[in-house]
Amino acid sequence: MKPVTLKDIAEQLNISITTVSKALKDYPDVSKKTKGLVKELAKTLNYKPNTFAVNLRMKESKTIGLVVPVIVHHFFSNIIKGIISQAEKKGYLVIILQSNESYELEKKQVDLLLSQRVDGILISLANGTADFSHLNGIIQQGKPLVMFDKIAKIIKCSKIIIDDRKAAYNATQHLIDIGCKRIAHFRGALLPQNSIDRFLGYKKALLDNNFPYDPSLVYICELGDNSFEEGKENARKLLKDHNDVDGIFINTDLVAIGAMTEFKKHGVKVPEDINIVGFSNWFMSSVISPTLTTIDQPGYKMGKTAFKQLYKEMKAIKNKKPLPSKIITLETALIKRESTKSEME
Amino acid sequence: MKPVTLKDIAEQLNISITTVSKALKDYPDVSKKTKGLVKELAKTLNYKPNTFAVNLRMKESKTIGLVVPVIVHHFFSNIIKGIISQAEKKGYLVIILQSNESYELEKKQVDLLLSQRVDGILISLANGTADFSHLNGIIQQGKPLVMFDKIAKIIKCSKIIIDDRKAAYNATQHLIDIGCKRIAHFRGALLPQNSIDRFLGYKKALLDNNFPYDPSLVYICELGDNSFEEGKENARKLLKDHNDVDGIFINTDLVAIGAMTEFKKHGVKVPEDINIVGFSNWFMSSVISPTLTTIDQPGYKMGKTAFKQLYKEMKAIKNKKPLPSKIITLETALIKRESTKSEME
DNA sequence: CTGAAAGCGCTTACAG
DNA sequence: CTGAAAGCGCTTACAG
After folding, report:
1. In the CATH hierarchy, which top-level class contains the domain B164-297?
2. Percentage of residues in chain B having pLDDT higher than 70
3. B143 → chain A, closest CA residue
């Protein structure tokens, strides 16, 4: 019942703990014979090194922390999958925490992770996060930190992102290309960098095409949760205020789907009356009807890349040769589907 | 840069490590004055106990392990959310691993968690798991184990489940009630208990209503991944073999959505030509068109319940009073939507 | 090739 | 009220 220790093996074999330890780790200065005996006994006794002791000695836990705003979103669960699978390959375990888009929780969780002494931290910020001292805290402790998707530009650490501005520009340009004349935007909350960038991309596309920029056509997802409900809510408002709008670029697929549901209820046809482009390419978007034109965002790859970068930095820190921070931008793609008309020739 | 230890505090205050430790933990036999001094200094130095050392001494890690077949499924990501939120409340961290429906991986991951010396394990089995020695291994080590959703009846541990048989019975009964005459079933893989139970519920409903049971109407999701593709595949087969079928009870929403997509492609109307009931009530099912009639399965609650049970057992084991295993069955509900006709009077 | 010893940072039974 | 000491299980520099 009690776990087997090095001492148990040493006693049974009448050798020292030192030798047992070395034998198991294939040190060159242990005789082949001894190694054989030790390894065999370790196996039959089902010896497993006590991680707590190893961690204490080695000052590392082979564990990383991950903080995401939400888990139950297709994009984030894909990222998680990417991170975990990559971490496993390198022998790292992942502790996952969800900030629920709350700054308070996020701060507390970073603290938790730090006192758990994880070897590194991966984070995607909550919408509510405007103060970054908790992140600087990580860096000050000399722990590697990699941010992904929802980042803070101001923090000096590696970041895995997409070019939100460019992607949003392309989405808006597509609406223009198919002939939309009045293009609205449902944007995300005010703080997150990516909702700012998507908004700027939208605006730039308009201006580059000599469209007037009309602030009243920009609807903010007020609850800040990018939900189905917010899409419905904003669609209702839009219908009331601007029934001349013929195209909308929407911050997130889920919001777009909410909007489409609301339009359908009011007899407004997509894409005949209004063309819609979403963002993220959730699986759902390919099975609803009409299927949703959107920007594909590589979640799984983002997760993998984030871990890889963190891993490099953890190794570098261990070798006392800290790496410079790096910003990696992943490619996105416009996926044309039924919610937007075909391009005109 | 180097983390602050008890020793650092003791030296600065010219008292013993023992007293510092006791003061921080509010032992009654330390003077108020000393406590004050220690706590203040600990705060200014930003002291955080070294978890590795605490774990080693206390023989517990305040960490649990979680193994799920997939993360990127609405049902499972909801469960994960439930587990994490509950664990956080009790001061536990969660290490998450994904078995990818592979027995080999699952076994390896359980081993990993065990050698990481987590305090308890939460698991939902892979479809491929037919051998359970790795689970017995957990129990033999005296670690609490709680299974949820995809369980093995044979293992003696607590389980959080739904009554799959009853839920499937209700789903099938609903198809009968609305007038279906030829009812097919798309079932899950052969091994998992829940796909067996859902199949049995389907069969029993038929027999109780004096419908003949026709094995050729039962399609197995061969890939075993309960995917969109499998739904399409089986729908194609069904259309070829049995174009008289007017109702299908499908093992999982995602498969049902795949089937509906295929039917639409072939001009088969849901629910006019074929009525469909899914299983799980994924969010997606409420936004596709037609919306999908399904069985609501309480993922978030299942996660919460699973952690609560594990927590009780961890506490009990610590107090040397192991608890008897418990099977908790959560309620499900039939959610009637557009993919099935209204009931006849 | 083998082993005694120190030390990682903590907790707690025990002595005073 | 305070503290010396043992010990959790490991790793590794050092001596032989």
Report:
1. alpha beta
2. 99
3. A1
